[in-house]
Amino acid sequence: MDLGAASTGAGEYAELLEFDMDMDGFASNWAYCDRVSTYFARMISHNRSDSLLYSNLFSSALNELLETVYRLHAPSGRFVCSVARKAASERIVLTVPVDARTAEFYRGAVRVLNEGDVASRYHNALFTDGPLQPNIGLLELAVDYAARFSIEPADGNAIRLIADLKLEESDA
Amino acid sequence: MIADTLVQTYKVSFDDNNQEFALSGSLRPERGAEMEACIRLLETSIASIRGTFYINVKRLVRLNNVAFHALAGALLKAADERPDVKISIITSSVIGWSTKKFGTLTAKNPRIVVEEYDSEFYPGQSFLEEGGFVPVLRTQTKLTWKHERSILPRHGLTPGVTMADICCGIGDFAVLVAKEFAPSRIVALDHSKSSLAYARQVASEFDIGGIEYIYGDAAEMLLEDGQFDFVSCRHALQIFNKPEMIVSELVRICKPGGRVYVSNEKISQCLGEPRGPSIQWTYEQLSKLFADFDMDLEFGPKSYQALQKAGLEDIRIESFMVTNRDGDAQAFADMVMAWEEMFAGGMCEKRGDDAAFVEKFRRGFEDHIAAALHPGGYAGWPVWVASGRKPL
Q1: Does the pLDDT of residue B238 top 90, yes or no?
Q2: Methyltransferase type domain: which residues (chain B) (predicted)?
């Protein structure tokens, strides 16, 4: 696993932190989702107005994205997670190796998120009797964290999932 | 690299006396089946209670959707099966996500309610945190800093340490420490959002970076164990009704080998001449007034024992007297004037004191002010500082 600062291609966003790892390595241990999201949250939150609150929120949001990737990816390839900042906004960019099935999942999920009526979809998904829908984390970010999602193709068989978050509303 | 210590497990417990099921820590399972033991305890707990079932998630820092889905299913099932029971989920705004997340349950079943407990933080102290008290807090820190800046190194504060200032109030002590001692990190925590907003505004106006102002309850902090070399808590144990809870938290977040530093007053020992007896009477009454609001302004000399009971070693204690002869008699007088307004005004009124008492009570403050400004006068306010080392 590499951790460091690198270009995110995020335009006006300034890069903060990036890690990359072989997908099969990342997917070998569920606890990586928690560890990576907690580590990232700590590292980027210290200069927000309430670092502890921000860290809790960011860790929760990033963890849901990482859990989604953990479950839905192509068996091999490079997984990259980067975070960039522009003022009060944070941009999470996940480069995920995909096959035809998982590529369709991510494209379909982002399409749904941009269709509207996301809150009711999310609340229905939360209380479903069966297993959790695989897009539950993305729905939560869109509803509870007002995340805006986009998706674009990346080099090789990969997609780049982009989530813009604004977790800090005021100084109070 | 990412250390294993970052992974936190969760704790679950049921207190049948309080009918309270408590979850804390980090709950991010891969599969719902991993929640089986937790759900079983939840179900047996609900089956054993009558009336209101409390679910305390104030210290549940992380919860993924897998865990929430399992918990929500069990709670909705219980609410359906036990129409005689109200389920009250206690969240904390310090966590950020939990009130909204658990609030979705109320929409599914109105007998599941969510209460954010932070609004009940220390209601007895509200009159100490209103905007009008900010100038006197600044003046107090200015006056005590003349002494503490030379005292602090004897209690272990050195440049480059990681430090937490708990119950930081308006944050001015953290700013002074940042300038004088350049710690590598300062976290300043308080339960007053208005004080923190003021602290952030001051830090921004004076372009002071690097202080993390955090909202939280000093008696139940979410800061992790063993993070800080130096943990300070000034003039705060004396205004909490359970100071030992806070001391325990100060010790918890201190690194082994690090030091916990507290300062407190013994307000009845405030003195002045001329008119010593009048001044002495008023400050003795002030001590009783605070006691009536469950605050112990006599705590100063008790600091030694409080640190000892918390298991600290190499305990050091000393006192200093802030006086009108420290170089700013007017600041001393301004501070006492503000005390008079705050205590003889707001607090006496709340206690229901009669006019004759208030008049005599005020006279002692006015005599203290007169002593401070008198060409030959002497006025003093004693403060005790104590520190102890956390065993390795």
Answers
A1: yes
A2: 165-261
The model's pLDDT over A125-150, given as tens digits with 9 standing for 90+, comes to 999 888 899 999 999 999 999 999 99
Domain map (residue ranges) of chain A:
2-166
Residue A5: the pLDDT is 45
Q: Please give the class, per CATH, of domain A2-166.
A: alpha beta
**What domains does chain B contain, in order, with CATH numbers?**
4-120 (3.30.750.24), 123-389 (3.40.50.150)
Burial tier of A9 (Cβ tally within 10 Å: 0-12, 13-18, 19+):
middle
Contact of A2 with chain B, judged by CB distance below 8 Å, is answered with no
> Which stretches does DSSP call E strand in chain B?
10-15, 20-27, 52-63, 86-91, 112-116, 162-166, 185-190, 211-215, 228-234, 254-265, 271-273, 313-323, 378-389
Cα–Cα dist A115/A125, whole Å: 16
Which value does ipTM take for this structure?
A: 0.92
What are B306-360's pLDDT values in tens digits? 999 999 999 999 999 999 999 899 999 999 999 998 899 888 988 999 999 999 9
Provide the 10 A C-beta neighbour count for residue A152.
Answer: 12
Provide, rounded to the nearest whole percent, the portion of chain A with pLDDT above 70: 91
Q: Which residue has the tokens 């210590």?
A: B5
Length, in residues, of chain A: 172
A133 by DSSP, 3-state: which?
Answer: coil
Asked if B138 and B309 touch (Cβ cutoff 8 Å), the reply is no
Tell whether the model's pLDDT for residue B239 goes beyond 70. Answer: yes
CA distance B117 to B59: 12
**What CA–CA distances, in Å, run from A90 to A85, B235, B277, B330?**
5, 38, 62, 49
Other CB atoms within 10 A of residue A136 CB = 22
- Per-window interface: A 15-44 vs B, CB < 8 A: 30-31, 33-36, 38-39
